[in-house]
Amino acid sequence: MVSVSSGDFVHDGHRLVYYEYGSGSRPFLLLPGLLLPQTMHRPLAQALAERGNRVITLDLLGHGESDHPRDMWRYSMPLFGEQAVALLEHLEIDDAIIGGTSLGANVTLEAAALAPERIRGLVIEMPVLDNALLGCALAFTPMLVMLTFGAPLTRLVSRVAARVPRGLTHLTDVGLDWISQDPGPSAAVLQGLFFGRTAPPRSERSRIETRALVIGHGRDPVHPFSDSDMLVRELRNGRLIEANSILELRLAPARLTGEIARFLDECWQQPAHAGADEATEASA
Questions:
Q1: Which residues fall within 8 angstroms of residue 218, CB to CB, at 6 or more apart?
Q2: Quick one: fold of 4-277?
Q3: Helix (H, G, I), strand (E, B) or coil at 63
């Protein structure tokens, strides 16, 4: 049975909540997608903890159980990256693997650029980079308009969703938690991200030497496979895996969970922060 515990810490005046699955000397910080709670990664966290990893999930500011300020300037990819690194500092973790999905993937890149000496490996699922800008604009602009100008209606929907019983399935619980959020802070998150940088620029990404496992999906305009392919070519030590769909890791996770678990094993078996040449020799 995997042990699960929760904790919190204060960063820049706001409370951030995290959960830990398992224990030991192999920490893996796992970050959720945009406006989604850390519970979206609960099944993956439990599966990886059963394989000997200490998995830590974080609700970034404006997400899940963490504080939800209404100031848009408090939300940006670099600030989210700072929060991820701050959690490692709070837990006194000097050497960790970090990963995430969508928003969490881009925050992973920010953390890798900010504190490469703390990070042994990266797991990047569905990065949102250059080729995703049009898809993101089409997908999230209507959401931002609804959250901002349709706040009375969305607030009513959130209150109704908050009263719906949980427990049917994990995915429905995550969806209900997402719908139950106050639209004001959610709109602030989207506004802050829209007016900030999406990810570290290519010049910074190309300097990242940390080992990376990139998981891309086809037929997804918000997370185009071309972004994942491009990122692997930019990173000095990246590996690409193609998922069957955006739902594979959620509905039929065995294959991708196994790939992630093997990558974590490789990262801990090899010297920390090995360069691309060393990794190439090891895999030859």
A1: 225, 242, 245
A2: Rossmann fold (3.40.50)
A3: coil
